[in-house]
Design goal:
5-stranded antiparallel sheet; 3 domains; Heat Shock Protein 90; 5-stranded mixed sheet; 18% strand; 10 helices; single chain; alpha+beta
Length: 447
């Protein structure tokens, strides 16, 4: 979960929706319960008025409830609806109370005000009680009485529970809708980041050189900084390549002078010293050329070259004009791939080094094939009909080591091609060619 921003945001949003709806459900249930109780108290207040209005003095002088409330539940024992009047000398109560006496709480702070209370009932159930203590008018004796009306709270609580049960399915549907809307919002909101990742991958593959504009305001600073970083890196790389070219010029001129000095020593009658100096100079030249090739490869941005077949045909056109390649039969074939996982300059340099070696050693024919040997890989295969290279020598030649006393060994070209392949995550494989000579396979992964 820690690696997915969408999953973390989605789960957090879903949890927030569930928590909010749970709190809303609890709050609505409490509000509904309070509303039901207020309605019940309003009805009980009407009953309390009827109870007080029904008090009259009998001919005997005693107070009595001569006109009780008309609700039939007051006449049914233990019906759940009760009234009671506490007189100084006795207690009047509804038939529904039977022989149970309500113990009303003390008089409220405001004399004559009606108060709410919860008291135990005849069957130990909870009763909602509305009571009032007041002094009767002079015609009724000016005595202080306490009147109360009570009803069973079970019906009120059942109504609240029923409301909660009926509301639950709607809350669940609303939760699903809000969670789905949240995930949809995440998908739409994170879409610019997905497109940004696709454009970064396109830069890496060489399909584009900048992220470009058109992003939302929140993402735009990131893309602008990224493009500025790419521009700065390209400028640094270009400066490094210029320094590499200057280094090549600065080193090759003294090395060429040393070869001239070796020739003078040979003419002076010291062939062994001249040969030794030439071997040293040759080794230095190969080392310089190999390191410069590596610098040029590292200096170029990674990516794919477009129309690789056209690049290969260009390499062959150049080699046909050289003394070694002019008398050979050249063939370029294979798959017409739209791209190759190397910039065009690196592809031309690597294939050029291999094809130049093939031209130098071939008898009559050189073939260059462009292919996809398996999914996720591309390769260029250069084959010739020359003498080939014994398997025992191939490993050392891939490292750029020529045989002592030879200047036309393929070691430097193979080392340059191997460097280009390895810098791009690929490899150079040497095998026997069906033509009779060497088959050099420059293999690169797509990713």
């Amino acid at each position: 979960m820690s690696s997915s921003l969408r999953l973390r945001l989605g789960l957090a949003g879903s949890a927030a929706v569930l928590l909010a709806l749970a709190l809303a459900g609890i709050g609505l249930t409490v509000l509904f319960g309070a509303h039901v109780e207020r309605q019940a108290l309003a009805e009980m207040s009407v009953h309390l008025d009827q109870v007080l209005a029904g008090l009259e003095r009998q001919p005997s002088g005693e107070l009595d409830e001569v006109d009780p409330p008309a609700d039939p539940r007051f006449a049914q024992p233990l019906s759940g609806l009760y009234w009671q009047v506490d007189l100084p000398e006795r207690i009047l109560r509804s038939r529904s109370l039977w022989d149970f006496v309500l113990v009303t709480p003390p008089e409220p702070d405001r004399p004559g005000a009606r108060a709410r209370a919860v008291l135990p009932g005849p069957g130990e159930e909870e009763l909602l009680v509305l009571h009032q203590t007041l002094r009767l008018p002079e015609r009724l004796g000016s005595v202080e009485v306490t009147a109360a009306v009570a009803r069973d709270r079970a019906a009120l609580l059942a109504a609240r529970r029923g409301f909660a049960r009926e509301m639950l399915p709607y809350l669940l549907v609303l939760a699903l809708f809000l969670i789905g809307a949240g995930w949809l919002q995440l998908a739409v909101g994170l879409r610019p980041l997905r497109r940004l990742g696709e454009r970064v991958a396109a830069i890496r593959s060489g399909e584009r050189d900048r992220l470009g504009s058109g992003d939302p305001r929140e993402v735009r600073p990131l893309t602008e900084e990224f493009d500025a970083l790419l521009a700065a890196r390209e400028e640094e790389v270009e400066r490094a390549r210029r320094r590499a070219a200057e280094l090549a010029h600065g080193l090759k001129t003294p090395l060429q002078a040393l070869l001239g000095e070796a020739d003078r020593i040979r003419r002076a009658g010291q062939p062994e010293s001249a040969a030794h100096l030439e071997r040293i100079v040759g080794s230095l030249r190969r080392q310089v050329d190999r390191e410069l090739a590596r610098t040029r490869v590292r200096g170029r941005p990674a990516g794919s070259g477009r129309e690789p077949a056209r690049v290969l045909r260009g390499v062959v056109d150049v080699l046909r004009r050289t003394p070694e390649g002019a008398g050979l039969e050249w063939a370029v074939g294979g798959d017409e791939l739209s791209s190759f996982p190397l910039p065009a300059e690196d592809l031309a340099e690597g294939v050029g080094a291999l094809a130049e070696n093939a031209a130098r050693h071939a008898h009559s024919r050189v073939e260059i094939h462009l292919a996809s040997p398996c999914e996720g890989w591309r390769e260029v295969r250069i084959e010739d009909d020359g003498p080939g290279i014994p398997p025992a020598r191939r490993a050392s030649l891939l490292l750029g080591k020529n045989e002592p006393g030879t200047e036309d060994s393929p070691g430097l070209g193979l080392a340059i091609a191997r460097t280009i392949a390895e810098e791009a995550g690929g490899q150079l494989v040497l095998e026997d060619s069906p033509l009779g000579g060497l088959s050099a396979r420059l293999q690169l992964p797509l990713a």
